[in-house]
Specification:
Elements: H1 2-14, H2 23-40, H3 53-69, E1 72-73, E2 83-85, E3 88-102, E4 105-108, E5 114-117, E6 122-134, H4 142-145, E7 149-153, H5 159-168, E8 173-178, H6 181-190, E9 195-198, E10 207-211, H7 212-219, H8 221-231, E11 239-256, E12 259-265, E13 274-280, E14 285-286, E15 296-297, H9 300-320, E16 326-332, H10 340-347, E17 356-361, E18 375-377, H11 385-395, H12 402-406, H13 414-418, E19 424-428, H14 434-443, H15 458-474
Parallel strand pairs: 6-7, 7-8, 8-10, 13-16, 13-17, 17-19
Antiparallel strand pairs: 1-12, 2-12, 3-4, 3-9, 3-11, 5-10, 6-11, 12-16, 14-15, 18-19
Length: about 475
């Protein structure tokens, strides 16, 4: 009878879905994560802007929590324990102008319709050839681009990457033609505050944003209409424009020291590779609407919640270890300005990138309720698909729309790693339901309303428990041999 009862209990335990814990344990996790968010998103932390006292408070807090859990410095640099320097350059636009030169005649692009920017202290192109590329991107060769001023038609969601590509190919400047003055004004507002770049990695990006009406006035309505029509035709190829471009701009630059924080939970077989957990610690500081009583953007969901989940996951893993593989925890700086901390990590990693067998990013996790489907960002791009699907299916949660998840692939720190062949993914309820995500984006994303009391922890805790199982399996070399072993 006793043996039969034990067998029944064993069978019952075997059927408990992966990632489920008793209510008391779930509640304890909720309390702990809420506590981290309340602290990291408090006014005292000044919106966690890089280079401020808020950065120092944030990194001190993260280090204390990880050290108490048993982590050690993961920088592998005795001169910089825990904190890997990420020197940044701050730029703030000052002035700029753009003129088109037709022989001895010049046409100035109206400043109300035009915004001219540089990320250097001063940039100038004087009499450069112009090339109209319409909506083309990487189809245009480096030989066609180098030294020219590129004129492109705005393409929402793609324009930034197209500009980057043209600058990489050596464009002297890029003119992006937007719809109207409202688009220019929105850009003017967005670029009216300082921006960060990695020191030593910035290139001269002399950028002009102007309206179709301004280009029509400068080139002539008939010529501009002809160009817009050609750009929509099959087989369109770049068109050389008659005028030469004279574009200049200036900005105020200053150095801003910042850091990534890196901790490590040592494994018993360090030669077997490492698992990486990452979340960006930074946010914007004062970014609310000018004149509002509360302008401080505390960044509770984005990304105090990601840090909180990563901390509690690290504590649970440490309590159950050791594992075969090392487990690294990375808190990155300046994600909000272009994944800069993640790029710095990838350029100078404390462990060879090829030794990282899996990387899991935690970003804006606390917005979805318990029971939300799992968004899988990076699906189909790494060798992690099988084990991720296995663990998610065992949890009984199911997957959200891959189309929704794919939209965020290049907008999170894991992209900087994925581009360097590190298997990096985001597994999160935040990207599992479009209605929930859109509600957050519309009401609180990058706004002063992203406060600690607004977060939703149900889905975040389920995500934590899912990652706990994933990391334990992947850190075990018997259960997850590295590719090629």
């Amino acid at each position: 009878m006793i043996l039969a009862a034990l067998a029944f209990l064993a069978s019952a335990c075997a059927t408990v879905p992966t990632g489920q814990v008793p209510k008391s344990e779930f509640a304890a996790l909720e309390t702990a994560i809420a506590g981290h968010i309340t602290t990291l998103a408090s006014d005292e932390y000044l919106g966690r802007r890089p280079g401020t006292e808020g950065e120092a408070l944030t990194l001190d807090y993260l280090q204390r929590e990880l050290e108490a859990a048993g982590f050690v410095s993961g920088t592998n640099d005795p001169g910089n324990p825990w904190r890997a320097p990420v020197p940044l350059i701050s730029t703030l636009p000052e002035d700029g102008s753009a003129r088109l030169r037709f022989g001895r005649r010049e046409v100035v692009l109206d400043t109300e319709d035009t915004l001219v920017l540089t990320n250097w202290q001063r940039s100038l192109v004087n009499g450069s050839d112009m090339l109209f590329v319409g909506r083309l991107g990487d189809e245009v060769s480096e030989a066609e681009v180098r030294g020219k001023v590129i004129v492109l038609l705005a393409d929402p969601g793609q324009s930034a990457s197209r500009r980057d590509d043209f600058f990489t190919k050596g464009a002297g400047a890029v003119i992006t033609v937007v719809n109207d003055e409202e688009d220019v004004e929105a850009l003017r507002i967005a670029r009216s505050t300082e921006r960060f770049q990695l020191d030593g990695f910035d290139v001269d990006e002399l950028s002009v944003f102007t309206t179709a009406a301004a280009m029509s006035k400068a080139l002539g309505q008939e010529r501009w209409s002809e160009l817009e029509t050609k750009a929509s035709e099959d087989g369109f190829t770049p068109v050389a424009l008659q005028p030469k471009a004279v574009i200049e701009a200036a900005s105020r630059r200053r150095e801003v020291p910042s850091s990534n924080l890196i901790g490590m939970l040592p494994g018993t077989d360090p030669e077997s590779g490492a698992v990486l957990l990452l979340a960006h610690w930074d946010h914007f500081g004062n970014c609310g609407v000018e004149g509002d009583e509360d302008r401080l953007c505390n960044g509770a969901a984005d990304n105090a919640s990601g840090l909180a989940v990563m901390l509690e996951l690290g504590k649970r893993l440490a309590a159950q270890g050791p594992y075969d593989r090392d487990i690294y925890v990375l808190a990155t700086t300046a994600e909000e300005w272009g994944l800069l901390g993640a790029q710095a990590f990838a350029e100078n990693p404390p462990v060879p990138l090829e030794d990282i067998v899996a990387a899991f990013n935690f970003d804006t996790v606390a917005i979805a309720p318990r029971g939300t489907a799992v968004g899988f960002v990076g699906e189909g791009r790494t060798a992690l698909d099988t084990i991720v699907r296995e663990v998610v299916n065992e949890s009984g949660r199911g997957f959200g729309s891959p189309i929704l998840a794919e939209q965020f692939l290049q907008r999170q720190d894991g992209w900087a790693l994925l581009q360097r062949d590190v298997p990096s993914v985001v597994i999160s309820s935040a990207f599992g339901n479009e209605e929930t995500l859109n509600a957050y984006l519309a009401a609180r994303y990058h706004q002063a309303g992203d406060e600690a009391e607004m977060v939703e922890l149900g889905g975040a805790i389920e995500d934590l428990l899912l990652h706990e199982e994933l990391v334990k399996r992947i850190a075990d070399t018997a259960r997850y041999p590295a590719v090629g072993e």
